[in-house]
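Problem statement: downstream parser choked on a complex file, so we are re-checking the raw output for the alpha-D-glucopyranose run. The parser issue turned out to be on our end (a line-ending mismatch), but while we're here, posting the original submission so the record is complete.
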Amino acid sequence: MKKILFAASECVPFIKTGGLADVVGSLPKNFNKKEFDVRVVLPKYACMKQEWKEKLEYLTNFYMGYNGRERYVGIFKLKLDGVIFYFIDNEEYFNGDKPYYGGLWDIERYGYFSKAVLSILPIIDFRPDVIHCHDWQTGLVPVYLDHFRFQGEYFRGIKTIMTIHNLKFQGVWGTKEVREVVGLPEYYFSPDKLEAYHDANLLKGGIVYADKVTTVSNTYADEIKTPFFGEGLDGLMNARSNSLSGIVNGIDYDEYNPETDIWLSHNYSVENFRKEKVKNKVALQTELGLEKNPKKMMIGIISRLTEQKGFDLVAHVMDEMCQDEVQFVILGTGDEQYENMFRHFAWKYPDKVSANIYYSEAMSHKIYGSCDAFLMPSLFEPCGLSQLMSLRFGTLPIVRETGGLKDTVQPYNEYEKTGTGFSFANYNAHEMMGIVRYAEKIYYDKKRDWNKMVERAMTKDFSWATSAKQYEDLYKYL
Ligand code: GLC
């Protein structure tokens, strides 16, 4: 039996700001239980939902030296869907009303968390064969592990994997300050280790010290070796390319299932979507005050509203696209500039655009279950999960060919009658609009082809089965 410990800063259903939480929440359930004992460790945030906080079982506490004094480390535990979760408690660090604050404060908090992840192991009596770290917040785990090796037998032989969900976020601050806070020897802060461009970089530390580095799609694994996607670390990604691989994410096929979804007014399947799915569209048009018309093509957008997601392209041609026979339904929050952009178009085209500037699980499922197409023109996209959810619901993704979008959406070929969606190559607003209009044309003029494509989309398998197997192989190899 191999023991694996996931370390991460967010995880569904406890705390979520992005796709990372979906992955950390669903992947551990999908390993072969006879061969792998996979557990997860998270910070115990005060801003977790009350219903979960109440369920945590207190195990013990101890003190750990960190940033100049002895710090309280409480350990809580919860078993959910057969997976054991540990929560690290320190009110000073995790008492805020949100998980992230930015700057040196986050570096101090997640440095503490990373050190605590290792320090609790002898106490919970779980010595993992592999610690699987996710994103910069756990970047110091492999570094502390290297440091701990010199202090005793216990930590020798524990392997680490660093999974990059988004290379844009690295955990960077002035070397001197970081060194003081995290308390690692000066030796670690050289340009071949934690230092990058004269600052300390926590993710870089993780990438340098992890035994294996993975990212969440094959294409992104290649892209990050180039300057545009490499975020300053493309040299390092090239240097580590022998240990770097891409494993595409999956989604939870029980949670995302149009046949059983509790939020849809009409459930449907690959057999009856032609008749049933459109009823959800009419229900949503009614709920959101859009023109009620089952025939009108509806395009969904569910996203963090940030530059990464390609909304500059949308802003540029939204007026033009709104001249067409289409409706847009947007759900999400983020940068004010994009929130206001969508609010503006909803105001200007009230029967065509619905801007829902909030997040709701229920509304997201209704959008996946109602729209005809789903727009995701990302500037870069390590994997992307929404396009997988869309495929599952027979809502055809329109994507830019980057990262995981390129690996999971097969563009329509009208001559060969293949494909599960639409895609365009260049980060260019008119190129995007060209593809949106092409999709409109197929939707209105070639409905049979469109429906065939929906069928193919719905029968694609992006559950975790295949990807979990690839992680298992990696664990075994280590
Ligand atoms: C980040 C990436 C997204 C990926 C997710 C989970 O949010 O931006 O592309 O799907 O992590 O790996």
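For whoever reads this later: The first helix runs from residue 19 to 26.
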